[in-house]
Write a structure and sequence with these properties.
The protein is mainly α. It is 67% helix and 2% strand. Helix 7 packs across helix 11. It is globular and about 55 Å long.
């Protein structure tokens, strides 16, 4: 039996309309808007948050009128806008997780941790491995997490692999929105808030990470670790679409996985749950992208072997040559 080849649809470049990223983002804001409508009295400025969410929904709906072709920079922002808003989505979770519950479930997670490990790794791991180099590397990896998404996104787009950048953006946002919804319905503060520990650090990178967390941490966003989930998704996308940089992404992702626990930022259970979410969304993200792309009828074409740069370049060239002759609802197979 012939081996089935992996295919990923790409968008017809001349059409207007919504992208899979638009639909995924709209879905998240629709859910959170309903929650705000029901429970806005439970949080400060709840009505303001609801109006903000409705405004975001309106802005995304307007994007359906924006042409799908034009200035490269504007098209890059059009295709990746949700990625740039990740810090804002993350910070907002600290407010939204009061919509459903007025408590945190750290006792439950600590019970799981005690049952599985017999101890609390996030409290003792750093004392067991008091090595300066390891301390610096794991905190550096934790800090580098904020660069993983821009690095791969920029790399794909600058190499002219726009369609793969769109798949990447959709997959990453599926990962983060999954984590954020879990945060809202199952808020866990995390060891950074629960355990009494050093929140300053010594050396080069530990103090930087602690200052960053002091000003930007979102309480209630510990389980699953979105750092780990996001890093795993980026790593797998790099393996699939850009293998030359995948070793670097793999090393940093491993550092993030252990660093979240080593630094006392997440429970070990959080990291494992983040790993599971990252693996699940790494496989589900491209499939969700493909499914939504077919539903919005953007004239998808198919690319064989999307992880091989030469096939992506050939496919893009053929797409551009045929774009004038391709009908809006047509489909070609390369």
């Amino acid at each position: 039996m012939a081996e089935r080849k992996t295919v990923i649809p790409i968008e017809h470049p001349r059409l207007r309309g919504y992208t899979p990223l638009d639909l995924v983002t709209l879905s998240y804001f629709a859910v959170t808007s309903v929650l705000l409508l029901i429970g806005r009295s439970r949080i400060p400025n709840g009505t303001s948050y609801l109006l903000l969410h409705l405004a975001v929904i309106g802005a995304i709906l307007f994007l359906g009128l924006v042409p799908r072709r034009g200035n490269t920079l504007l098209m890059f922002l059009r295709d990746t806008y949700a990625l740039w808003a990740i810090p804002f989505f993350y910070r907002e979770v600290a407010v939204l997780n009061d919509l459903v519950w007025s408590k945190y479930f750290d006792a439950t997670v600590l019970g799981w941790e005690q049952a599985i490990f017999g101890i609390y790794p996030s409290l003792f791991l750093r004392d067991w491995l008091p090595y300066r180099f390891l301390d610096e590397f794991l905190h550096f990896s934790y800090l580098a997490y904020y660069l993983l998404v821009p690095i791969l996104g920029f790399w794909l787009y600058l190499r002219g692999r726009e369609e793969l950048c769109r798949v990447f953006a959709t997959s990453v946002m599926v990962t983060f929105f999954t984590c954020y919804l879990i945060f809202i319905f199952f808020p866990v503060a995390g060891p950074y808030y629960i355990f009494v520990q050093d929140k300053t650090g010594t050396g080069i990178f530990p103090p930087i990470v602690h200052r960053l967390l002091a000003g930007g941490a979102s309480r209630g966003a510990a389980f699953p670790s979105s750092h780990v989930a996001g890093a795993i998704t980026v790593f797998w996308m790099s393996v699939r679409f850009e293998k030359p940089i995948s070793p670097l992404m793999g090393i940093l992702s491993a550092g993030i996985f252990f660093g979240t626990v080593y630094g006392g930022f997440h429970y070990a259970i959080d990291a494992l749950a983040g790993l599971a979410v990252g693996i699940l969304c790494s496989f589900a993200g491209p499939r969700i992208h493909s499914f939504l792309l077919r539903r919005v009828r953007l004239g998808p074409m198919r690319i064989r072997f999307p992880h091989l740069p030469v096939w992506s370049v050939i496919s893009l060239r053929r797409l551009r040559r045929r774009s004038d002759a391709t009908k809006s609802g047509g489909r070609n197979v390369l």
